[in-house]
């Protein structure tokens, strides 16, 4: 196999997911037979490593080599131009959560550069961007895969695409789409046993690293709304944005103006009675409260917020910080197709990216 | 797009799954833009419909046209020769459960004809056949996809392949792999409430069409053993055959020699105390009994049979005739990746076949 037959890989982003991805890529490349890929570009927000002649970058020690590089990242259009002019087909792996990189997908795809990413921004932002992305992909034949944008490495997007593409009729999608929310409610209102006070559980989750640096970024529901936007669009609903449907925020109105996450956490206990009431109301009905997202396809209705479930319901029985996604379809009838497991974390998110990369390579090489 | 660029599709088998598959294919072909496929061959056990010039067979009314055909099916080597000589790449869709067709996959693959099938026989039969299939595929580049051979359309094989190919370490696979066994135990020993007598549940399951015509074909555990064989081999274990590891049969020894399923069903009640004892023993431990398969990868140990589970365990909480498959891996840690839902039925089995077909077309066209 000549070097020019290898697919060129460019990686933007070397944070938690990016580092895990590069590590998985190194293991892949060391395998016999190895996949036909060659790393030609890698960048952080401040540095870039690449060669004008597209010479292969060694995966061993790539993070150190990037840190030692004297080159700054070119502009995104220049990176895309570099890849479009490569002597082989190229794949852009976006391991950032940057809106700027997401905005460049239509250009990349239109130039024949495939895109693989866990970045939610492109698929959950303005509907026009979504349309531009898939129009560019359709016109050029370049692929765009984003399994890890919902549920990390769990087979959520691939399963939904299979259902839709083979002609099943999706009726409803429902689930727990946030590892943080899953942990909080499994602890606060467990299906069996007693939970702690709401603010205590939030503080504990932050200490365990289960929340964003500012927990309000989880509690506002926007992360879940972005994931629902992606799934709803895959089913064909023209969702305009992640704020164009009802999203319940768990941030008390009075605390929206806090200057910091720490100030918010200090003041949250004063509002524990609100969540406690919700929990007790569910208990009186023999149920538990959970933070879920749902898409009612027929009614074109998407919503994100608190709901109550029987203790024996799979959503109530969830453990730890697991996600669960239930697909109710015509073919599957009353019992949904369910996918469940860790929906966050560097390794499992990178796994979704790596698996997507292999699928794209299989199609374009 | 010229007709010669379309991928040629040959379909063997027009039973329950075959009919659903052809119906899904018809819906696909009617879509705009339609996938680049052309049906060039279809056969039942007695008839075949094809044209020597590979002219496209209309999907509308194909079952009727096949019934009206005057041609008998050629031998399998002749069918493969016909496909290998086609003016475009070809895919053989085997919707039978025939060992003969399965035995012909190495020849088809070596001649560049891809294979898509729900047929378990090729992948769970002699280990040599498994090796021959993947060696032929590796050498020619022809693809072989068989999602529906385990759990019908549920994303079981694709998920396991993604885990393995991206370098995760699979530690254990455990689950309920038979819709029949699922229904029987969910009814006989429900997690909440009382079940009926074992023989009554078997008779009820047969009446509902949930068992094979002779229920012993479900109760002997071989169907589950075949599925475990496939998954274990995908993880890399060189399982010689589905009878090379412990498989617990639920057919009482004294009834193995019954001449018919009906005779078996009549005599089964006399042995109800055996199953009742197992159920009571589980209840005393606060558990329920289930018929499961498991693969302990590190210990190279596969087994199929009865086991006990806590009432809150996802396997105990299963409903109806659903399957559940749990993947315990290094990346997913203590909480497994779980896939759950209907694992049998014409439409969902055909869906797995259709989805595989689309994936192969995306790679070879």
Automatic annotation (TrEMBL), chains A, B:
The active site is at 227 (proton donor). InterPro entries: Asp/hSer_DH_NAD-bd, Bifunc_Aspkin/hSer_DH, HDH_cat, HDH_CS, HDH_short, NAD(P)-bd_dom_sf. Pathway: Amino-acid biosynthesis; L-methionine biosynthesis via de novo pathway; L-homoserine from L-aspartate: step 3/3; Amino-acid biosynthesis; L-threonine biosynthesis; L-threonine from L-aspartate: step 3/5. L-homoserine binds at residue 212. It catalyses: L-homoserine + NADP(+) = L-aspartate 4-semialdehyde + NADPH + H(+). Its EC number is 1.1.1.3. GO terms for molecular function: homoserine dehydrogenase activity; NADP binding. NADPH binds at residues 96, 120. Gene3D superfamilies: Dihydrodipicolinate Reductase, domain 2, NAD(P)-binding Rossmann-like Domain. Residues 13-147 form the Aspartate/homoserine dehydrogenase NAD-binding domain. NADP(+) binds at residues 13-18. One of its GO terms (biological process) is methionine biosynthetic process. Residues 155-358 form the Homoserine dehydrogenase catalytic domain. This is Homoserine dehydrogenase. It comes from Ophiocordyceps unilateralis.
